[in-house]
Design a protein that fits this description.
With 620 residues, the protein is α/β, with parallel strands linked by helices. Helices cover 43% and strands 19% of the residues. Strand 17 and strand 18 form a beta hairpin. Helix 12 packs parallel to helix 17 and helix 14 runs parallel beside helix 15.
Amino acid sequence: YDTKSIIMFIALKYVINLMYNFEHTPLNYNINLTLYTMTLKTERILCMNDFMNIYKKWLSCELEDTDLKDELIAIENDSNKIEDAFYKELEFGTGGLRGVIGAGTNRINIYTVRKATQGLSDYLNQTFNSPSVAIAYDSRIKSDLFAREAARVFAANGIQVYLYPELMPTPALSFAVRELKCSGGIVITASHNPAKYNGYKVYGSDGCQITLDAANTIISLIEPVDCFEDVKIISFDDAVSSGKISFIPDLVTDNFLKSVSRESVRKIEGKNNLKIVYTPLNGAGLKCVTSVLESNGFENLIMVSSQEMPDGNFTTCPFPNPEIREALSEGLAVCESNNADLLLATDPDCDRVGTAVRDSDGNYVLINGNEMGVLLLNYICEARSENGTMPENPVAIKTIVTTEMAKDIADSYGVEIVDVLTGFKFIGEQIGILESKGQENRYIFGFEESYGYLSGSYVRDKDGVNASLLICEMTAYYKSKGISVLDALDSLYKKYGYYLNSLQSFDFEGISGLKIMNSFIEELRNNPPENILGNTISYISDYMKSVTCDSGGNTHKINLPSSDVIKFGLSDGSSIVVRPSGTEPKLKLYYSVKSESKELSSDKIRDFENYFGKIIKDYK
C-alpha cells in the first residue's frame, strides 16, 4: 500500500463518516453503512500490515487460555506463521465466524469469540428492549468453552442467556430461539469442516440466520472492538447463580422432537423391517436422531460404534462431511456386515444428512443432495396429494445452484417453486415471508444441493433430524411396495430426463490465494467467454449486479439480494454457476446438465470439470 492509497482511504472514510452521521443524507442508509464498514475494514487492514506488533501485543498479555500462549511462543521464530495468524482479523461474514482454532486475530479463540459477542451484544441492546439469546454448541474442539465465553459476554451486557446444557443440533437452536421468544441466538459449530476449524453462527429472532442488513450492522459494531480492552465479561458461575444465564430445559428439546415427528406424511406398517445403520460422525446428532426414529417406530437401528460418541478430533473421518464417501467408510462397513437397507450420516452439527442405499447387486450407492432432494419432494407431494393434506397454492423452495429437476416435479403436482440465493437462510427467509402473510402452511419442502432439507416451518434452518425421519419413512414405504429408493429415482429420471449436477471446488489458501481467487472472479465477470466447449452462451446472470443479460443483448432484473455469483446458461441447456465460498477460502463451480442417459450427462460433467480445472490451474 503506497502513501497515496492510504491518504485516499482515510479521506474516503472521513467523507462517508460525515454522510453516515448527517440526518438528511442523500444516500440510502444501507449504502452508507456498507461504505462506512468497507472503509473501516480497509483502514484496519492497512494498520494490520504491521502484524508483528500485534503478535507482540498478544504475546505480552496474560492470556486466560494457556493453549494460546504456548502456540504464540512456538511460532515466535516463524514470520510466515505469525503473518498468517495476524495479517487480518477473522472476518465476520453474513452468517458469523468460521476459522482455524488457535492464537491470533485470524483465528477463532476465546478473544475473537468475545469480540464478536460484544459487537452482537451492542446490536441486540440497540435493537431490542430486554434482549435475550439462546446458545447451542456441537462436539467440536472447544465448542463448549466458546459457548460459555459468549454467554459470559452476553450476560455482562445485560442480555438474558439461555444455554443448552449439552451439545445439540443446529436446528434445535433455531427452534429454541422461536420457542423461548429470544431476540437472537448463536451456535458454536464449523459444520462439516475438518477438526482444526470451529465457528460461530448467528441467528435472528425469527430463528433464521441473520439477514444481510443485520449482518452489516453487526459487523460495523464488531470492527471497533478491542478484544482485550473493550469487552464486558462476567464470571460464568456468578451469571448462573444470579439468573443471567439459564440452562434450556428438557421440555424445549422434547417440543422440538415432537415438531419433527409431526412432519411424518404417511402411516406405514412394518417399519422394523427396515434395517438402518446410523452414524452421527462423532457429532451432535445422536440423541435427537435416535429419539425421533425410535419414537416413530424405526427401532431396527444399528450404530457405528467408532463414530457414536462426540469427538471433535474426528479421528475416523478427518473430513466429517456426509457428502463424501471417505467420511462414510466406517458406516458402509457396518452396512455390509449387517446387510442393512440404509445408511444415515449426519454432519457434526446435524443440520445435514448423507445417505447410502443397497442396490440389486448388494453394493451400497451414495445418494447425493440433489437426488435426495427430488426424491423427498416427489414423496411428500405424492403422499400429501393422496391423503388430502396438500395445502392450497403449495410452495417449495430451492437455491439457484440446486437441480432444475425440482421444478419439473413441482409443476406436475401444481406446486410453486421459489428460487433463492445459495444458503439455507434464504429458504428460511421465504418461510418467514409466508408466515408474515399468515400463509406458512403453504410451505411443504425446501432443499439445497449441499444435503440440507426441511419440510416444516417449526425451524428456519435445514434440519438433519427432520430429514432422517423423512428418508427412513420414504425408504420403508418403497420397501413395502417392493421397490428400492434407487428404483424410485430411476423412475423419476425416466419421466423427467436425466439431470446431473456436480460441484467442483478449488482451494485458495492464504492472503495471496484470496487475491488470486477474487481476481479470477472479476476477470470472468468483466471478460466472460463467448462459448464453453463449443456451446455458445445463451445468458449470463450476474447476481452482484442483479441483472441477467441474454445473447440478444436483452437485460432482466434479478429480484434477489446482491451476491458475488455468476451463472452462465449454455445453448445446450447446461449451466455453470461460479461463486466464492462464504465460509472457506474456496471457489465453487456448480455444473448442471440434462441428457437422455446417465452416460451422456456424466460425459458432459467430466468435460466441464476438465475445462475449468485447466483454466484455473493455469490462472493460479
